[in-house]
Amino acid sequence: MNAPVKIAVVGAGLIGKRHIEAIAASGSEAMVHSITDPDPARSAIARQLDVPYFQTLQAMVSNSAPDGVIVATPNRFHLEDTLYCISKGIPVLVEKPLAVTAEEGLKIVIASEEKGVPVLVGHHRRHNPLVQRAKAEIEAGSIGQVVSVHATCWLYKPDDYFNVTWRRQTGGGPIYINLIHDIDLLQHFCGPVETVMAMQANTARSHEVEDTAVITLRFENGALGTVNLSDTIVAPWSWELTARENPAYPVTGQATYWIGGTNGSLEMPTMRIWHQQNTRSWWEPIDARHVPVRSTDPIEAQIKHFSAVISGDKQPLVPARAGWQALRTIEAVKRSAESGSTVNIAI
Predict the structure, then answer these.
(1) What's the confidence (pLDDT) of residue 1?
(2) What is the CATH number of domain 129-295+328-344?
(3) How far apart are CA 103 and CA 80, in angstroms?
(4) How far apart are CA 168 and CA 80, in angstroms?
């Protein structure tokens, strides 16, 4: 049996702590190497785990280089921290978004690919068995050629959520915070987005940042897509309330993605495939079959995958380039919403 890989966690905030829990749940596959965080109060976490504590990434690597690093620092530090790890040849799992801007993200992509150092991006939903089964059904031709997709992300963030100033300011709204997950999955299912047209509004709360957006997408393969997004609607249709990924959210049992093909349609995460037995026609009966999927914590699955990448057994499921594609699409959405024009995404 191989020894567990030693993973350093850099940034011990909410998501950093979740990664620590996931490493602990990985059994013999991984162990926490150390905790790095500039806040001395976070040293208590290291003491509880009986692992070293450092205030800087550089100090940690200089003391004892880990097998891999999880970068869970604030977004503005992703570029510097990830490039440093690449320069030292250490595989990285960086939380989403990959960087603050697509321009910064591309620097990480180039460095990772040129030096051959794996960089994974924390779009954890791709590790959900629901997503993996849906991808397999699409690739197997269960619904034929994908023609159109739709995603709804309607939820209500309570007023006290906005007591944190940056959440009321540009960059703190649902386009950057929530939509990037949906964009990543839609591109996972349909391939890269080519063209974006979007509108946004802030009429419900009148904050500087948007609270609602409607987006139209054209994918490079010719499929079309729409996304309806709002964090000010009381509704049951969002990934958070339907996918059972996080027990903090109530479960509604509804669908939130619809993927339409020439031979059928797929609902997610309810995992129903609609099809017709014989003739495809609006005059003919249509039935649905349920695709059973086991439940797995996607963040724990992501840690196991990262461990396998570190060991050289697997290639990254969400490499830096995929994270960059999601980020540049989000930037295109914002440019379109602010300009009122269609935005073509450069290859």
Answers:
(1) 55
(2) 3.30.360.10
(3) 13
(4) 26
